[in-house]
Amino acid sequence: MEVSNVVPDPRQPLTLLYQTVDLVAINKPHGLLVHRSPIASDASEFAVQLLRDQLGQRVYPVHRLDRKTGGVLLFALTEAMNSVMQQQFAEGTVDKTYLAIVRGYTDDEQVIDYPLRRDDGVVQDAVTALKTLQRAEIPLPFGKHATSRYSLVELKPTTGRMHQLRKHMAHILHPIIGDRPHGCNKQNKLFLDQFAMNTMLLHASRIQFTHPQTGEPIVITAPVQAEFSRMLTTLFSGYDSAILQV
């Protein structure tokens, strides 16, 4: 079985989820950087570049997704809209929803209120609301256990700290599958060996905001991508796809 963790072919167009004269949203593939970064010198393709070439105009990412995270990524098409939308994200008025597959059985619902330290030492408040959508126990031995348990969770961050969801899930001992360095390396190796899977199973499934010019509520959703879908089928046999319509 071939490992599926490659950066998307730049010859293939990005999937557009929403487009107006001043905004456009894509379903960012896992493994694709938003923009050039000195800490990822191995990358040669970036969402900003690919979308610019696809649309034939300049684009402005108004927020960020980790390289390993897939899902809704919003761009402005003018400098003015970029400024206004960045302000909305900074003020926390954009509602964001993520899906993740994590190790173990999570609580039905939980608020993770755990401050995070930046690289420069500054400690920032960080809050994430968790809701468990489905649980699974599969006959796959791991360590001293005869089976393995996993949960499909919905995550809603009310703050926007770097790697917040990844760090919060590691903090409550339910790391996201495929996460490095915050996840469980033994679980990641298990998924690589058993399922030929090394994608991080974190997906930005939905954003909601008020259009700055029209005042209209905008909701943009992104379907999960191939590897996330494969792991849902593999781990959660008979899972209810309706629960992903968040």
Automatic annotation (TrEMBL):
InterPro entries per the UniProt record, alphabetical: PsdUridine_synth_cat_dom_sf, PsdUridine_synth_RsuA/RluA, RluA_PseudoU_synthase
Keyword Isomerase (UniProt): yes
Domain of life: Bacteria
Keywords: Isomerase
Domain Pseudouridine synthase RsuA/RluA-like: residue ranges: 22-171
Record's keyword annotation contains Ribosomal protein: no
Protein's UniProt name: Pseudouridine synthase
